[in-house]
Each structure stands twice: as structure tokens, then as C-alpha cells.
Amino acid sequence: MCFTNLDDTFRARKPQRRSKSGIILFVLVFFAMLSAKAAVVDTLITGHVLDPENKPLPGASVSIKSTPTKGVKTAVDGSYSISAAATDILVVSFIGYGRQEVPVNGRREIEIVLQSQSTSLESVVVVGYGTQKKGEVTGAISSVNENDLKDQAAASLQQSLQGKSAGIQITQNSGSPGKNATVRVRGLTSINNSDVLYVVDGVPLTANGINAIDPSSIASVQILKDASSQAIYGSRGANGVVLIETKKGNRNASHIYVDAYAGVQQVRKKLDMLNGQDFIMLNSEAFKNAGQTSPWTNPSQYTINTDWQDAMFRSAPVQSYNLAFAGGSDKLTYRLSGNYFDQDGIIIGSSYKRSSFSLNTTFKPNKYIEAGENLSIAKSKQYLVGEGATSRVDLLSAISMDPTVPLKNEQGNYVPSRFSDIMNPLASIEYISMNHPLNTWSVVGSTYLQLKPVKGLTLKSNLGIDISFSDDKAFTPTYYVSAAQNNPITSLSQTKATGLSWTWDNTATYETTIAEDHELKVLAGISAQQYSYEFIRGSNQGQPGNDSYLQYLDAGTSNPTVGGTLVRWSLLSYLGRLNYNYKQKYFLTATIRRDGSSKFGANNKYGNFPSASVGWALGKENFLSNKGQLSALMLRASWGIVGNQSSAGYYDFSSTINNYNYAFGNGAFLTAEPAGLGNPNLKWEQVRQWDLGLDFKVFEGLTGTIDYYNKKTNNMLLRIPILFESGFSTGPLTNVAAMANSGFEFQLDYSHHFNKDLRINIGANLSTLHNEVLSLENEGAQIFNSPNMTRAGHRVAEFYGYVFDGIFQNQAEISNHAAQPNAVPGDIRFKDLNNDKVINDLDQTFLGSPIPNIQYGFNVGANYKGFDLNLAFFGVSGNKIYQSYKYNTNGFFISNYNMEQETLGRWHGEGTSTTIPRLTANDRNFNSRASSYYLTNGAYLRLRNITLGYNLPDKLMERWHLSGMRVYLTGQNLITFTHYDGYDPEIGITFGGNAGTLNLGQDQVNYPQPKTIMAGINLTL
Amino acid sequence: MKYLLLLIITTAGLAGCSKFLEEDPTAHLSTATYYKTAADAEAAVNAVYAAARPQNFFALETRIVVGDVMSDDAEKGGGGASDVAEIQQLKLFTAKPDNSYVQDAWQYNYHGVYLANVVLDKVPAIAMNAADKENILAQARFWRAYFYLQLVQLFGNVPLVTMPLATGEYNQPQVPEAQVWAQIEKDADSAMQVLPKQSELAADKNGKATSGAAKALLMYVYMWQKKWTDAQRLGEEIINSGEYSLAPDYAKIFTTAGEFGTGSIFEINMANIPGKGVGSNINLWINARNTWGYGFVVPSPGLVKTYERGDPRLKATVIANNDVLPDGTIANTTSSQTGYYNKRYWLPPNEIPFNAGGSVADGPTNERIFRLAVVMLWTAEAAFHNGNKARALELVNLVRQRARKSGGNTDMTVLPDLSTITLDNIYHEMRVESALGEHLRFNELVRTGRAAATLPGYVEGTNNHLPIPLREIQLSNGLLKQNQGY
After folding, report:
1. Residues 708-727 of A with CB under 8 A from B
2. Which residues pair with A181 in a beta bridge?
3. Touching B: A residues 724-783, CB under 8 Å
4. CA distance A925 to A934
């Protein structure tokens, strides 16, 4: 979005000021030179001006700061030579790149790398409804720029952001192609909804809309972390805001970009499951231990040994092709791009394809007016397999499947497990998943008009849209695997949905400088938004065949059903912001937003969200600026109140009518009664946050940021129990619960240019998180979705259950232990936590958190001549993983499920095991109860990305008439350091579960993330 | 400055559309958009009826738990002493305030009160036919009286809520029983004036409240308060109204074919209409454990013994081992706690809900609330207290005569007419006439002061009421006072 022109104003203004002081300096220097010529000796300084990819920048200007008139332009190879004194400061600038000041410090040869405009330290940072110069930001904002994003060959934005910034936790919930990751800013902000707000080119998007944005078209990402930066988004800002700018054309150069990559993905590891003979042996033992007859008579007759994991996993291709035309003139810029992305999942049957197109243009006929638009259109098609907490988890079925059953029988048909209720996953995928495409069209865009009628004043009107059309079409053919797994009649269920969101912002910005030292910028605006979602659903059965031309509702012949509805919310906002600084040393930002939302009760339709932050540029104080080493130092503090409206449903303020029936005579008559009570006082969840931060630049090349934040979420929504005299047992959603989060964030970046050929950059970040639920007032004062317990005084969604205390070796141990009914030797001993000599509900406790309390990332990059190498790591620690799939694979639900090889080490006689209980087909001790037995350390460190690239030499490029060409190899998730023995330690929310965001960290053999090797090419014409 | 003006105009323009922030729930009507038409009013009052059906699939209807199991007519039954132990605790008078049946009784009756209050609050403003409106309001008053009658019988001093409560008003203090009785009288009396007679009700509206039903309710309220003159007056009005007559065969009254018979004054209507959810789970809970039910509420040996020799009403009420059932099958009651099963909810195979297209919770047997025979016996009791023993004797004998000719009985020596009358004669007749049918027994024992002498463990002054649910006392921050002895 485009306050870019404000920079022009800045640029236009600042040199004036500088030139004033410059003249004075010039005069002083001139006289000094006259009077003491020997003191200042100019020497000839040479070097090159390069772009971030070490390509020469011809035509860049190099001048002496104290003598701006004394400037030169760089040659075709980027070289320059200028005479300057050892104490001079070179000023280097080039359109599209950040201006840089380089102290000569007595050097003769100086290589200068300019950062592109959006990323340099002096560059502007996109903030809500405007921009700010990076050095003047007083809020806590994490920036991820184009350099961090490009060359990553990431399937999604979230993937490329992971591990890049302190305080941003990104968890891939699934390795299934096209699935969203969970993004949390500074922990879980609410027990209800903690999803961040995405704003692309100034337009708030839906979760669906963000998928329409091709990751390769993103120029920069800013993540607003503290209340000061979020408050301008008022009731939608509290969970953090991800501001995304898409790439625009350059004013001075036209290029064609071709980017392509292709690669192959594989599963990181397989679980070690039992072979057929061991499978029969252990299951037989389980029946014997339960005093039951094993169905496995004459085990030697079962000779087949099927590896179901091999049948489920595949080497899956991934490919992406991108073509972009970008360029422009003084009056017009454009960028037109198209992308095709195609990823098959590493589990058969899953895939995601996306075609997208985008066009960004700006038009600036004169200095008073500017207009532009951004448009992205994407079409995707996704196939999913059963995963998560759904009724059908195909991978869990695969590892639990009877290994003595063949993939198919002689007739080519799928066969069921012999004696278990496990569904054949291959059949489920072929018949159900592969007949169930989800097609989505997304249109996301904005158009703006900007006027600058007088100096300092900018008026802007921005209209944004986010439209999605989805078509979810599930056809079930007739098939027969077994009595339990079959479909006797064809059926089709189809849902068509339209999501429509529009936003209209009108803002006025005025900036001025008063008495030289007081810089002032004021923003006022009004914003209106509306979102609606409408769907129509139909189903019909009895299509006369499985052919694709019969997979339409009209072909059905029995039991047709229909359904559909529309939901909508609206938001009307007034916003204002003041930025002030005195001598570029003391900074103040104050914002206020007043939001009215249709989601809230009549008594609380409007809420106010104020914030303020201050900054002190210590580095510019005389007492520090002389120290030389500290070239920039900014101390920041912020406070504010931000809202979260996403936790409330569309109509929770109201009381809807439920219709049932009552019989009079022999007929049913309609009844109507309020479904519950509305809450006319319903309002926003409210987050108060303060933040203390320090930005520093210790010496050339090393920058860092340290933040401490403390936020308290109040008024979280819960249904509280109420007196029955009200007519109901629970009240409406009420603003009652509270939670706190706090933590430290550290970010360090170092880059060094050794010479023209070699440069390195290193970045590292680390964040800590402390969470505590302060109060809950719902029935039972807890939210328990086993094994996750949320209760006041504890961390949110902690694991909760019994404590595993070894295995009973003999009857004496059982007798000496607290009463644990039905335990026999070989069963798990649970700890008697309250010492009441009986094991019951009261012996459950909090066992650890699924949320890491430390997460970190670091990346190392090096460029040598044409080569570039980049490694990005990401890690978490302090969290636990609950391996609920071990219910199946450790033999707790023995009904002829296959098990992991580790169960060969189960207890089968005194002294045989202290870690794995006996196997039994009748678990009377309830060994499978939620306990620490299933918990394991969830820490890991992952090499998220490693890329080796090579820029072909310029000479070759000239011969080929190309501007640039780079080839690269990328590996993703190649190495993971962890003690975790499941598929993948990266476990997100348990989607498909009914608990939403509070069901975390459970491994139900979630779809593992692939490790990927890709080769790619970037071509610039 | 003019640009600032422009901004203000733009802002004001948008702010002007204040409707922009007003959204009403879609696809569902809301309390804000409902209650506008005559059909809305009708559906709203129908919801009050529905609130009198069993509300919790996983629990036995409290009216039956209290009226039958807590009395000497029945034992809990089911699958052994620990099967739904909370009912057994009620039976043994050891129930604590956190007993879920206690809580259910409070919750569902107040939900009924609430729905009646919604009608009384919302319907007056609806533009509709005045007579229809008055009728609907009268139905709501009838039901409010009914639910408060349950509450005052079960709990004694209860909060009296006569309007839908707003947020923040939920915590209401208990009022003295007399005040609750007064409110019930007022509602029942007002309903009685407006509701149609039974004969004015179309057959396809069977189950709607009538003036006769309201009159019976009010009469019972007078009985509780020992207002014998008023009670007898209303009883005689019902008996002499010409609206009701004793159905000829007692044995058919409690079958589905006997529903809304000539002697029926009020029933909570259940039906098995698949997909509509208008039946009950009572058949499921009460039918024999070795057939398709859970086998709860089994007749006690004491009840069986209390029937006079040859009283046809015994076979209409109790299934004994080897009895021939109406469908010709031979009963096996060995799985019953007492050796008997409850016949009130027995169904022939073609009426078992899942054989008739419904779910197990679509039991079709109506709940009989008021019957002419019961009203006659109450009238007899009131007449007795009023000194009119002759009328009491006459009424009791009328009930006995009908019973004598029931169930195909040909031995006219059974149940001979009484020649003199005592209160105990009347009480006895009431017990055998209504056992396990109207679920009156426990309330009748309490009302007539005979509970302590009849029920082991019953403590007068404590067990005439259930405890106030613990949850309510806690949520009221102590405003609600626990009943004496709990």
C-alpha cells in the first residue's frame, strides 16, 4: 500500500536541511583547507557499488557527505573513484535502493553493497495505514524482507517465515499439501481464537484469502507484535497482525522474471512396526493374558508380510513455475505475474494444485495524484486423506493394519484386516479421498486513489476485496471391502460457498516540521468492513454408476437433502495516530481506534483501543555518539489495549429460536423457544500489553533487538453457569476469563563484506514464553479435552492425567501400592499423588505443556563470487508431545492391531520390563488412561532450509542477453535433531477436534512433513 | 482546512449509516425477530407443553421417580442396586443436594416456567385474533401453574418468577409456600375462565389444555391447602359438567388406545412420529429388562397385596410372572427386582417405537395427569371433610363399580359397594385406582400426612421436600436457603 510517496517528501525535505548544514560544513571545511592544508589530505578512493546479490550497480551516485556537490556516478561495472579525506563520509544512493553513508576511516578501497529500498536499515517499515522510517519505529515490529523470503522455494508464506523472527511461533499442523500452518504471535492470546490478522497491501484478508497470495509475489512482511503497533487495528489486532506487501514494478527498469523449481519429497522416517510373525505372537499373548482364545491358530499359515507404510508413502513431486513482467516509468509501474504450483503429498491420494495470477499497477500522472490497484486471482484444487481427530485417520490405520494381509487379493480387490476393525486405508483413500476434490477460487485485490493537494497532506481512499468461491464435492462410489467397510449405494454431497469481504478505508495524513526540530505526523481515518459467508449444500444418493459423468446431484435418485445459510459481520472504525519526534532523538507514537462491530451486544457496540509508545535514540545523544561503536541505539517502551473480536460468533449477542415439535392428537406441531440467552453486554476480548525494547547497531554490520513484553488478556469469552430460574443452565458467552503471557525476545543480525567476492550474514533469534491462565468461570472452572486441560493457575492446554510409575513386577508390589483395582503384575503402576492409598481421579495432575517455552531460529548465509549458500534452522524446546497413537501401537487396545517393534520389550514376567506394560486384550487396569506414559520431550532443531545457488557470470549473461541467471539446489527439512520417536516432532493443533485451539500437541500420527530436495532457476531478462 | 472539512463530510457520511452495524441472526429467527404473528404465538405456547415431556434421555422422568419410586408403590428396579444409584438414594431418603435428579427436577420445572413466562411476556404485543390470543395466554398460565405446583410440592419455598428475567436478575429469593400457592391459584383460576371445554376441542387438538384441566389443577391446589369447600365445589363442577364420563373398561385406559378417553381430563401427549421427536423415553426405562426396556419402576409386593381380591385393576397395573399379556405372550418377570413389572408402559410389539419407525426415545404412551376417577376420589375426600359422607360414599362406589366391570371381569362379587365410608377407604381407593399411573402416591402421602407412617426412612419436616440443588445454592451466593434437614 502506498505511502511510498511520503518517502519522496522525506527525501525532498531532508536534503534541504542537510544542504543547509552542508553549506556551513562546506564553508568550514573550505576555510580549514585554506588555513591548514596539510591537516586534511584527499586520497583517491575506489571500489564498486553492488546490489545485494553482488551485481554491479551502474549509475549509482557516490558523493562526499560534507561536500554534496562533489559526486560521481558509477561505471557499467559498478566501479567508482572519488577523492575524499580519510575522515569523510561517503554518501551512496541509487533509485530503488536505500541511501547509505559509509565512513572512509582511512581506507583506500571500499566495496559498497546497497540494500534494496524495502529492506535497508534506513528504509521505511510498513505499519498499519501507513509507513514509518525504520529508525523511528517505537513499537515492536518484526520485519522479514525480500532477501529473507526469496530463493526459498516455499509452498506457503508461513513456511518461509518459520524461525525467522523472535516471538512468532509458526507450526505446521500437517504435511498435507495446501494445509495451513498455525501462526501465533507472542503465545496463545486467547483460549478461544488466537489467529493472526493478515493484511495484504492494506486489506485485511480472511484465512482463505491469504492462500490466494502466491508466496513468490511477496516483497515484505512486517509482524506487529506489541499493542502500540497493533492498536491501529483495534478489535482485530490483538492476536498480532501480519502486514504483507506484494511486489511492485520498478520505476526505472523493466524486466521479465522467470522462476521455476521442481523437486521430490519423502517421508522423514518410518515407524518400526512388527512383522507378521511377531504381530501374531504378541497378539496371541495378549489374548492369553486376558484369558481369551486367540483367533490366531496355526500361526505358520500366515506367510504374507505387508509393509503398509510402504504402500502409504511415496516419493512425491513438487513443482512451481513463475513468470513475471515488471517495470515502469516515472508515471506508471506495473507487475504482472502468473504462477503454477503443483504438489503431491507424500501420502498417496493427497495433492494440491494452485494457479494464480496477479497484477499490480500504480499510476502517478503528477505530483498531486496517484492511483493504483493490486489484484490476485488464484484457483486451487486439493485432495486430502483422513487425518487429525477425524473419524478416519488413514496413516494410523496403515500402521495398525494387519501385516499378514496382502495389499490386494488375486482378484485385485482390497482385503480387510483379518480379525480387527481397522479399515483398509488404501481402500479408504481410493474410494473416499480421491473422489473428494476441494476446488477454490480466490480473488483478492485493492484499488486506491491518493491525493496530495498541499505540501504535507495526503488523502487516500482504499477499497479492498477478498472473495472466495469454494466447491467441496464428495462422491462415494459403491465398493465392498468387508461388512464394516463398504458402500452399497452411490452418494454425492456437494457444498458451494461464497465468502465475500470488503474493506473501505479513507485516511488523511499530515506531516510537518515545526521549528526545525519538531517532526509531526498525524493520521486520521475511517474504515468500514463487512464479511459474509454463504453456502448451499445438497446431497443425493443412488447415482446409477461410479463414472465421473454421473457424479452430479441430478444423477441421484434417493434421499436428496438441501441446506444452506449466510452469516455476516460488519465493522465500522475511526482511527487516529500521532507520530512526533524531537531532533530525531525523542519519539512518541500515540494511536486510538474506535471500533463498532455487529458481533457485539447493543450495550457494547463500540470499543476504544488506545496505545502509546515512546522511543529514545540514545545513540544520537552526545554522551554516546562519540563512542563510535554504538552507531545506533534506540530504547523503546509501549503500552496499549487491543481487542480480539474473532472469539465471538456472528450472533452471540442474540438469542436464536429453536424449533421442535409437540404432538396434539396424532400430529406433530411446531414449537418455538429461545435456544439460549443473548448477551446484550457482549464485547471484545481485551489484551493489555506493555513492551520494553532496545534496538542497537553495535558496529558496522551487527544489529540487534531485545524486547520484553507482558500482556494480559481480559474479558475472554466463556459460557458461565447460571441459575436455572433464568430458564437455562448456562448463560450466553460472557466476558469473564483472563490469561497472561510474557516473554523475552532476542534478535541479532550480523553481516560482513570481506571484499567484493565474499560476504557473510548471520541471523539468530530466540524467544521465551511464559503463560498462565488467570481465571475461568465456566462450569467446572476448566476446559478439559483430554489430554489437554486448561485451568486457572496453570499454563493453557497443559497435558493432564495420571503419573506413570513403572510396571508392577509382582503381586507383592501391587499389595504394597495404593489400591489400584484390577491391577495384575505387568500392569502400569500409577502414582498415588495425594497419598490417600487409592488411585482415583484425584491422582491426576498437570504433566507438561504442549507449547514450547523457548523457540529459536538462526540462519547462516555466505556469498562467494557467484555462489550463495544459506542455511536456516528452527528449533523449539520445553514442550512435550502426547503420543496418543501409542494407544494402538503399544498394544493398549488389543484387537489385533499391529504394534511397534518396541513392544517386543513388553513385560512378560517378573523383571522383563519396567517401561512397557504387559499386553492384554482386556485392559482391566485401564493402562490406556491418559498418563505421563504417553508423554515425551518435544524439543527439536530442524534444518528448515539449505540452499546453494550460483549466479552465472555477467559475461555469459551479456552474451545471452540476459540480466541475470541463478541456478540453485534447495533442501527442506533435511535434518531434524530430536529424541522424538514418532514421525515428526512438529505437532500443531489437533484439527478436526472439537476443542479447537485448546487441543494441542497430540500426535495421532499426524500427516508428517516431507523432506524435500529441489532444483530451481531464476532468470531475469 | 477545506480538506479537513472534506474528511469530516466523508466520515459523517459513513457514520450516518448506523444500520451498518445491525445484524440479525440468519437462517434462525431470534427473540428479536420472532413473536410477531399468530403462528409464532402458537409455536411459543406449544414449546411450553414440550417442556413437560421428559427432558433428559439419560434420566428417568422425575415425576415418576418421586411419585412412584419414592413411595411404597414401587422399587427402583433396573440392573441392580447400583444402577442409577441416585434414584436409590432418593428412595432411601439419603439423597444429597448434589443429586442430579434433584437438580433436574428444579431445572426442568423452571425451564417450563420460563417458557410460559416468555409467552406471557411476548404474546400480548402480537397483533392477532383477540380470542386466540387470550386462549394462548390462558394455556401459558395453566402451564405456569402446573410447573409451580411441581416446584412447591417438591421443594417448598421456591423463588417465584413470573416474568422472563433479564441478565443480572437471575438471583431471586425464595418466597413462602403460601405465596407460591396463591400464584398457582391465580394462574389456574384465570386459565379456567378462558380455556375451551373438552367438547370444544377438536380431536386433532387432543392434549391441549382445557378449562376442565385447569379446574382439576386448581382443585388439587385447594386439596393441598385443605380448602375443602372450594375443592369439593370444583370437583362437583367437573363431575357434573357433562364433559367427562368414566370410561367403561379400566383395563383399557392406560393403553395407547385408551388415550384421551371419555374420563381423561388432561394428558401430556406422546406420539411416535418418526423424525419429529414427540415421544418419550419412559417406555424404554420402564419396560421389562428382559424385553426391550431398562426395567425401572417395578411394582412393590406391598402394592400388589393392597389390591382387594379379584380387583381387575391389579392386572391392568402389574405384570406378574407367567401372566398372559394382551399380545398373547407369557410374561417372564424373573429379571425384576421385585418379581413384578410395571404394566402402565407396556407396549404390544407393533407399538414398540423402533418397530414403528421411530427411535427408542419415541415412546408413545401419554402421561395421564388428571382423570375423572381421580377427581371423583378427591371430591369424595373433600366431601368427607365437609361432612358429606354420603356423597363421598357415592363417589367411591362409582369408581369401584367401574373397576368391577373392567378387564373382562365377570365375578360381580369382587369390589363390593361400600356401605360406610372412612378416609382410609378413600385413600385406599385412590391408591389402587391411580397406582403407577398418575404418579401421585408420594405426593398424596405427604399431602395427607401419612408419609412418615408409611415410608421407612422418611422424616416428617425434612423429607416432605427435596433438598434445594447444591449448584443453585452456590450460584445464588447463599441467597437460596437449603431446606430444613439437608
Report:
1. 721-727
2. A172
3. 724-729, 731
4. 16
- Cα separation, A779 vs A788, in Å, equals 17
- Interface residue A602 vs chain B (CB under 8 A): no
Residue in the block written with cell 393441598 = B224
- Asked whether the beta carbons of B154 and B465 are under 8 A apart, the reply is yes
| Rounded distance between C-alpha atoms, residue B219 and residue B481, angstroms | 30
The residue of A567, A598, A671 whose CB has the most chain B CBs within 10 angstroms, and thus the best one to mutate to test that interface, is A671
Q: Looking at this protein, which amino acid is placed at residue B131?
A: A
Cell output for A1021: 531478462
Side-chain half-sphere exposure of B311, counting CA atoms within 13 A? 21
Q: Are the Cβ atoms of A650 and B25 closer than 8 angstroms?
A: yes
Annotate A886-915 with DSSP letters as a single string: HHHHTTSS-SS---BGGGGGS--STTS-SS
Residue type, B292: W
Q: How many CB atoms lie within 10 A of CB A905?
A: 11
Q: Where are the beta strands (DSSP E) in A367-487?
A: 369-383, 437-451, 457-476, 479-480, 486-487
Cβ contacts of A808 within 8 Å, gap of 6 or more? A814, A817, A823, A824, A825, A826, A827, A828, A829
Q: Is B114 on the interface with A (CB under 8 A)?
A: yes
A672, B29: Cβ pair inside 8 Å?
Answer: yes
| pLDDT, tens digit only, all 486 positions of chain B | 455 555 555 555 555 456 788 887 777 788 888 999 999 999 999 999 999 999 888 999 999 999 999 999 999 999 888 888 899 999 999 999 999 999 999 999 999 999 999 999 999 999 999 999 999 999 999 999 999 999 999 999 999 999 999 888 899 999 999 999 999 999 999 999 999 999 999 888 999 999 999 999 999 999 999 999 999 999 999 999 999 999 999 999 999 999 999 999 999 999 999 889 999 999 999 999 999 999 999 999 999 999 999 999 999 999 999 999 999 999 999 999 999 999 999 999 999 999 988 899 999 999 999 999 999 999 999 999 999 999 999 999 999 999 999 999 999 999 999 999 999 999 999 999 999 999 999 999 999 999 999 999 999 999 999 999 999 998 898 899 999 998
A and B: number of Cβ contacts within 8 A: 194
Q: Does B359 touch chain A (CB under 8 A)?
A: no
A347, A385 contact by CB (below 8 A):
yes
Residue A935's closest CA among A802, A782, A815, A763? A802
Can you point out the beta strands (E) in A152-278?
168-172, 181-185, 197-200, 203-205, 218-224, 241-246, 255-267
| Cα A533 → chain centroid | 23
**3-state DSSP assignment of residue B382:** helix
Q: Report the relative pairing of strands A241-246 and A197-200 from DSSP bridges.
A: parallel
Contact B245, B372 (CB under 8 A): yes
Q: Which own/partner contact pairs does A328-331 have at CB distance under 8 Å and 24+ positions apart?
A: A328/A249, A328/A250, A328/A251, A328/A252, A328/A254, A328/A362, A329/A251, A330/A251, A330/A364, A331/A363, A331/A364, A331/A365
What strands, in cross-sheet order, belong to the sheet with A845-848?
A782-785, A788-791, A798-801, A845-848
Task: Let me know if B306 is exposed, middle or buried by CB neighbors in 10 A (0-12, 13-18, 19+).
Answer: middle
Q: Does B273 touch chain A (CB under 8 A)?
A: yes
3-state secondary structure of B474: helix
Q: Which three cell numbers stand for residue A999?
A: 487441543
Is the distance from CB of A712 to CB of A161 less than 8 angstroms?
no
Residue A320 and residue A314 in contact, taking contact as beta carbons nearer than 8 Å: no
B337 DSSP assignment = S
The Cα A662–Cα A672 span in angstroms is 10
What's phi and psi for A856, nearest 5 deg? -150, 160
